[in-house]
Design brief:
- It is a single chain.
- The chain is α+β, with helices and mostly antiparallel strands.
- It has helices spanning 2-10, 14-43, 135-145, 148-152, 183-194; strands spanning 131-132, 157-165, 171-178, 198-199, 201-202, 207-208, 210-218.
- The protein has a domain at 124-218: TonB (TolA/TonB C-terminal domain), CATH 3.30.2420.
- It is rod-shaped.
- Residues 1-9 and 92-100 have low confidence and may be disordered.
């Protein structure tokens, strides 16, 4: 029993041993710190702090340019409401035909004031009608100007042209009165007419330029 009691009294936990040792070391550290500060103040009695003031140049103030904002645009006014006149129109109104087929050259009015008779197809007085004088030559020209594709396909047609024959019997201008239905044939007919020569129309023994209706036929053989 005595031996157990002595061994139990000699056994000390590690935590307690650490506390005892740390207390001793802390006392030694405090004493060393006090001695170090005392020696420092003894060796260096005067201590001056360095001037740490910062010097800086004045910064220039940059002012942005003034921006002028334009005013908003004026509001767009609404368009005025159109006012229609109160006119009673009959339901059975008819319009007279105005195509050239219903109005031959002989019935056309004279040209307007200041306009030349050759500008538009109008009736120009004459005593003697112009006559085609190179019919055989035109037959050869007609064969040459026939569009090949339409000829090969067997497509033909007739074109009626208004032709202005001048005082020398030459066709100065032409326009289609009745189309053949094929623009290629209409254009070829206009080319053929340019090769025609006429005896000039006469009015009181004077040659005069007149409008005539000339037919050009394209036929396949």
């Amino acid at each position: 029993m005595l031996k157990r009691t002595e061994s139990a009294a000699l056994w000390i936990p590690a935590n307690e041993r650490f506390k005892a040792q740390s207390g001793d070391w802390m006392a030694v550290g405090v004493i060393a710190a006090v001695l170090a500060h005392g020696a420092l103040f003894t060796l260096f009695p005067e201590m001056n702090a360095e001037d740490v003031r910062v010097s800086s140049d004045p910064t220039a103030v940059v002012t942005p340019p003034e921006v002028t904002i334009p005013p908003p645009p004026d509001a767009i006014s609404r368009p005025a409401t159109p006012r229609l006149p109160a006119i009673d129109i009959e339901d059975d109104v008819t319009i007279a035909p105005t195509d050239f087929a219903s109005n031959p050259v002989e019935n056309l009015p004279p040209p307007p004031a200041g306009a030349r008779p050759s500008d538009v197809p109008v009736f120009i007085k004459r005593d003697i009608e112009p006559q085609l004088i190179n019919g055989r030559e035109i037959e050869r020209v007609l064969e040459q100007r026939y569009p090949p594709r339409l000829r090969e396909s067997g497509t033909g047609g007739a074109v009626l042209l208004y032709v202005f024959v001048d005082e020398d019997g030459r066709p100065a201008k032409s326009q289609v009165r009745e189309s053949s239905g094929y623009p290629q044939l209409d254009a070829a007919a206009a080319d053929v007419v340019e090769e025609m020569r006429f005896s000039p129309a006469m009015n009181r023994d004077r040659p005069v330029g007149v409008w005539v209706v000339q037919r050009v036929d394209f036929k396949t053989r």
